[in-house]
Amino acid sequence: MADLLTKRAxxxxxxxxxxxxxxxxAEHSDVRGCMVIKPHGYSIWEKMQGALDRMFKDTGHVNAYxxxxxxxxxxxxxxxxxxxxAKECAVVTHYRLKSDPVHGVVVDPDARLEEELIxxxxxxxxxxxxxxxxxxxxxxxxxxxxxxxxxVRWEMRTRLFLRTAEFLxxxxxxxxxxxxxxxxxxxxxxxxxxxxxxxxxxxPVIKGIKxxxxxxxxxxxTYCIEAMMQDGKALQAGTSHFLGQNFAKAFDVVFTNRExxxxxxxxxxxxxSTRLMGALIMTHSDDQGLVVPPKLAPVxxxxxxxxxxxxxxxxxxxxxxxxxxxxxxxxxxxxxxxDDQKKPGWKFAEYEFKGYPVRIAIGPRDMENGxxxxxxxxxxxxxxxxxxxxxxxxxxxxxAIQSNLYQKALALRERYTRVVDSYDEFKEAIEEGGxxxxxxxxxxxxxxxxxxxxxxxxxxxxxxxxxSPGRCMVTGAxxxxxxxxxxxx
Amino acid sequence: MADLLTKRAxxxxxxxxxxxxxxxxAEHSDVRGCMVIKPHGYSIWEKMQGALDRMFKDTGHVNAYxxxxxxxxxxxxxxxxxxxxAKECAVVTHYRLKSDPVHGVVVDPDARLEEELIxxxxxxxxxxxxxxxxxxxxxxxxxxxxxxxxxVRWEMRTRLFLRTAEFLxxxxxxxxxxxxxxxxxxxxxxxxxxxxxxxxxxxPVIKGIKxxxxxxxxxxxTYCIEAMMQDGKALQAGTSHFLGQNFAKAFDVVFTNRExxxxxxxxxxxxxSTRLMGALIMTHSDDQGLVVPPKLAPVxxxxxxxxxxxxxxxxxxxxxxxxxxxxxxxxxxxxxxxDDQKKPGWKFAEYEFKGYPVRIAIGPRDMENGxxxxxxxxxxxxxxxxxxxxxxxxxxxxxAIQSNLYQKALALRERYTRVVDSYDEFKEAIEEGGxxxxxxxxxxxxxxxxxxxxxxxxxxxxxxxxxSPGRCMVTGAxxxxxxxxxxxx
Lengths: 489, 489
Known about the structure:
The structure is a homodimer of 489-residue chains.
Chain A: H1 12-22, E1 26-28, E2 35-37, H2 39-58, E3 62-63, E4 69-71, H3 72-75, H4 79-85, E5 91-94, E6 97-100, E7 104-107, E8 112-119, H5 124-134, E9 143-152, E10 166-176, H6 179-199, E11 206-209, E12 221-228, E13 234-244, H7 246-250, E14 254-256, E15 262-264, E16 266-273, H8 275-284, E17 301-305, H9 310-329, E18 334-336, H10 344-353, E19 358-362, H11 364-369, E20 371-376, E21 382-386, H12 390-415, E22 417-419, H13 423-431, E23 435-439, H14 444-454, E24 457-462, E25 470-471, E26 478-479, E27 482-486
Parallel strand pairs in A: 3-9, 17-18, 17-19, 22-23
Antiparallel strand pairs in A: 1-2, 4-8, 5-8, 6-7, 9-10, 10-16, 11-12, 11-24, 12-13, 13-16, 14-15, 19-20, 20-21, 23-27, 24-27, 25-26
Helix pairs in contact in A: 2-6, 9-12
């Protein structure tokens, strides 16, 4: 199967697209920009959802559900938000179809909505309009609410998972009595995202804040985690926004504070989306196909019995049954593939291409010897193992694979991160890709000039970076700290 | 809080609406017909999702995701489907907004879609259009796929959970090589729904098939489970459809069968929705508020310490900690409510009104005596229990409550189910509510006449009912078996 895959070195974008399609992760639908997430892809997304949902609940959040539709006028209520989101939207104008002898089905012109509805591109407006009824006093705060939902942004150029008109995501929307609490919440959720990225996705990320021009429309501050893909391009993997009182003011959400005074509520919002699927694929996969970290793999271990006939198959099944039970008892997901319509070689290729972390092969000779052949997907190494304590060995191997994937990605990022002091150096370095740490004078004009000249943007101002001051590589004006420039997805 | 609730006997519909709002389950949004599902309501829905999802996976299904939008022309491809669904739909006609100096934000007339998109009312069309690319041979079958999604049907008269313009649901869409397998699948999923209703929702249901006039638009056969609410009205709690080859023919989905011949694929689809929340509430709740079966309760046990000061509170906390640990070790969800801003009486009222299955009160005197007061929500009974083996006792109590709720609902259904032989008798009986078992001649004309005369519909032809033949109560024509008539939600 891997021979159907474009090599990364030949055409990285084509490799990505091939892989998403051929590993059965997703495909384009007939509806412009909307994808179908196929079962293999969706099962990875489900694992992500499960892990994130537990982390949200462990930090005190609950889930709820708000309407898909937003009245058009809501978008205009928050001044910056309207600039960002009242653009490429799906607009519902009618609520009825009728049969037509010539055209089959037509839109009923009599069923025009008084006010058009927008399919939510994000839910701040409808949620803050709802919160108005929920908050009277400081005792009603904080509201720590998350929503799992689909959203629509009418993107013109789409790529599977990375940029689609409809995508799946979660959006947290919290309301607080004080500015400090809202900022603390924004930062807490950035930490949750960073932990999730590193411990589950096995993707190292840099935590930072966005420049004013890259900030979420309506936010006072946008925090983000930035990852580096194998081609050296950056990918924003999650954002958390401190929204100040902007939406509370736009939707008139006030509360009586502890001093018995009326005050506007403070807010945060934060989200990650099916875009993380793209990040996962582009971080770990290779020319042999998909690589999935064990913690997110739909099935962690595939067992391929090598049998000449039904009798041998049954003997292997019986022999291996206690090991299957042991693996499952350790919480490991495992598939015993006794499909006699497919040859072992075909199965090996399939499991490798689709990213099963560990593959175990076992034939009659192995049974005699008390061994199995264990292949790990990350390094493609195979080794013969004694079946004694096999469950424990496989458990350790899965942990080792998870860790190795992270370390590999971290090594790549470190290799492609450079410190640059002059603009000439920068222009050369950016062609090689990766993250470039450079001083910037803090102006939108310089940021825009760099973007125009090189297509690189400021990914973030790192939160934990080197804080040594310096001089802007473009203008020479003073700078407080280096920022990260990169070309990005 | 219960004194804010209309009594069921006074106005059942108002009781339901009050309860949904005041128990913080859901509320109306500003968008016509669209609801906000509040955290307490959503957490019950999440438990339903979790249980159903496990049952789907245990029967071999996987999840996937298909686009929200359906090209208008797709709806017209299946002749019966278009009659059923090309009606009250949300229609997207434009994909861009623009700023306007006078009106703030307006729809950009230049951004009109060539073909309008429908927000999915159900996904058969878009999914079968996708399946065309997935099925070539019998080896690709069956496809056993489920989707968790939101759907929109532009209902004119809406009621929270029961009938809303947007609702959440799951829709299974399966593809099979033979008619027999597709029918078997439809029946299997009906059984899954019935088991879920009885074991999780604690709602007894009758499995049956719909008459032709009540059949899903595009189905050859619609199977359903019907439940009876406390007011004697019926509620359809889930449907499973055998779709024949209708959608395969409409979307040209053919496969090479084992005899190497081209054949259209056979299909089923099946779904349950947030409507089940309405069924749950109307089956078990009472004039004191919400009643939730333990298996679906967001929190099963609320512990209310009765303390005069912080010192006592801490003493109770320490004393009760091992019991908390024991309860959690048994997989029981429990909340120790040490909020000192609220009085115990207020907490009792809150937990009772919101349907916590078990409430435990413990004060300093109880500690001395080694006792607690345990209140069960279903019967409102209180009893003093020794703390010895309390975890085990509570575990048994939760099982008893789950079972009692089911038995109570079953007893009600049996009390309000009558066998009727004449139309005069029927017209009298229907005014008292409940299920009426009567003979019907199998014609749509008779079904329609009964509906016009009495507002009762045929809920289903029971699968496991008495198969004695008889004569139609209206026309006297021969009938194979009794069917269930009722007024319905």
